Amino acid sequence: MTLFLGYDPGGKGKNGVAAIQVVSDMPKIVDKATVRDAAEALSWLQPHAKTAVALGIDTLLAWSPKGGRACDDALRRRYGGNSIIAQNSLYSSMTLNGAIVAKRLGLPVYESHPKLLLRVSGENAISELYQDALASSGADHEGDAIVAAWCAAMGHNRKWIVNLFSDLEDDIELVVPGARYPWFE
Q: Are 156 and 54 in contact (CB under 8 A)?
């Protein structure tokens, strides 16, 4: 069974990490935790990375010199809502910690947007795991990491073939070469 990792970078004590397996397109949690910072997240993720095939992160894995990304604009147009925040408005812990972990872990990496995905996708299996994680920990960090790992699995296994970074009109810089942003539609 293939292992996928997830990371939800946050502020002090708000970094979610997760390892999941996907069996017959169904996610199964192997391990999850909330850790202090990116250094502790790396320490938690590295032993799992020896057998994992990909990492999903709830962060920006591509940056635009224009101040906005075409992929975010497209998601805002399609789904509305206020959960898609402009890159220049994000807090540094999310963007910097995510980039550090993505670069240092050395796995194929996939961007995710757990809150939006849960709201619009109808993916019941991952939604149930998210809700269970939320109920057991009282915070969403581990749940977001689980969903990020799921997005990595769906992108890596080519179940979701859309790559939101592929807009030819966008002038983005990938944080990690080869990073992808898989989407279910």
A: yes
Query: Under a CB-based contact definition with an 8 Å cutoff, are residues 154 and 113 in contact?
Result: no
Number of domains in the chain: 1
Helix spans in the chain (H)? 38-49, 70-79, 92-105, 114-120, 124-137, 141-156
At residue 55, φ and ψ (nearest 5 deg) are: -125, 130
Please give the residue range of the domain that contains residue 49. Answer: 3-180
Residue 98 lies in a domain: yes
- Cα distance between residue 142 and residue 160, in whole Å: 23
What's the rounded Cα separation, in Å, for the pair 162 and 40?
32
Which pTM value belongs to this model? Answer: 0.94
Q: What is the pLDDT of residues 141-180, one digit of tens each?
A: 999 999 999 999 999 999 999 999 997 678 899 989 999 9
The Cβ of residue 120 has, within 10 Å, a number of other Cβ atoms equal to: 17
74 vs 128: CA distance, rounded Å: 27
Question: How far apart are alpha carbons 135 and 156 in whole angstroms?
Answer: 28
What's the gap between Cα 137 and its chain centre?
A: 19
